[in-house]
Amino acid sequence: MSSPVPSAQRSANRARVVRALRERGAQSRRALAEIGLSRSTVKSVIEELLDDGTITEVTAAERGTGRPPTLVGLKGDLGVAVGIEIANGTVRAAVCDTAQQLLLHDAVPMDDHTPPEATLKTAATLVGHMLDRLGLDKHRVLGVGVAMPGPIQRNTGVNGRATTLKPWVNVNPYATASSVLRLPLLVGNDANFAALAETIWGVARGMRDIAYVYTASGIGVGFILGGALYVGANGTAGELGHTTIDENGEVCQCGGRGCLNTLANADSITQKLWRSHHDRLSIADVIKMAQVGDVGCRRVIADAGRHIGLAAANMYNLLDPELIVLGGNLAPAGEILLAPLRESMARRAIHAGEVLPPVVVGALDEHTVVVQGAAAAVLRDSDRFPLPSLPRK
C-alpha cells in the first residue's frame, strides 16, 4: 500500500506524467512509458492519478475512432485556460478546459485605432461574460494566452514596428495586459499560437516540424520545430510577409519595398479589384466570387498564391518542414490559391518536385484557430500555470 504522502521521486514521476498529458493530450499507457519511466512506474502513477481524480480514462466512443488502446487524459474540470486574440478589427476569445476541449468562443468588433488599455478592457469584459455563461468563477482560470498580430521582441517584450495594429507598436503587451486582466498570462504571436493549435487539434496533429502560414492583415508563419514553438533569437522568426518579392515594388508599412504583404495579403488582393469591379470588396467577397467563376477574382487570388509560393520555397529551402499549413482569411480560397502556390514553390525549391512537403489548408476555423492556440499554450505550460492541488482520496 502506497504511503499517503508521496516521496520526492513519486511526486516527480506524477509531475512528468501530468506534464506529458498537458503537452500531448490523452495518451495510451504505452505512449506514456516513452517519456522515460518504466511501464510499472507509469502503471502505478496512473492508478494514483485516477484515484485522486486528476485523470480519467478516455473510451474509443468518446474519441470517435475504431478500437485504439484505452487512453488516459486529464479531467476537464481541473480548470480552464483562456485565449485572447487582439486582431485587426476584432477581439476574439476562447475558453478551453484541461481536457483540451473548446468550451466557448466569441468575438467583439474593435476599431484598429483603439488604445491598447481600452482594447484589453474590452477583452476582459468579453472574457468575464463568457465565464458567466459557462458558470465558471474567475478563480477557475489557470491562465490567459494573449495573441498579437506581429513580432514581440524577445529581450524587451515590446511589440516591433511590423505589428499591424499601430497603437501597439513599442508597447509591452505583457505589462499592459497584466495590469488590466489581473490573471496569470503569457503573450505571443498569432501565427505561432495558430501553429500550436493545428498540432493539437488539426491537420498537423502529432507532427514535430511544421510551418503554419497565417494570413490576416499581414502574412506570418508559426514554426513548430522539433516539437516546440520556434520564435527566434529576437522573436521575429516567421515574418514571411516581410520577405522581399520585388525590390522595386510598393513600399510596405515596415519601410521595406516589395514585401510579400504588399502583393498577397487581403488588402492588396482587394485593392487590385477596385478599378475592374467598382466596389470595395472584402476578402471574403472576393473568395466567394472566385468560387462561382469570377475571372478577375480568380486571377488576383492565383497571383497571391504564386507570390506566397515564392516566399514558401525560400522558407522550405532553409527549414525543410514536413508539412506546410495555410490558415487565416485566405484559407477558404482552397485550391484556387494552393494550386498556383504549389506550382510556384516547386519551381524554386531545392530538389523541386521530389521531396516537397504537402501544402494543405488547416482543419481549424480561421476565427478560432489563434485563440485555441493561445489557450493551448497555457494548458501546455506546467511551470507557469500549475494545476490546483487536489485532495488525495
From TrEMBL:
Pfam families, A to Z: ROK
Family of this protein: Belongs to the ROK (NagC/XylR) family.
Protein name per Swiss-Prot or TrEMBL: Transcriptional regulator
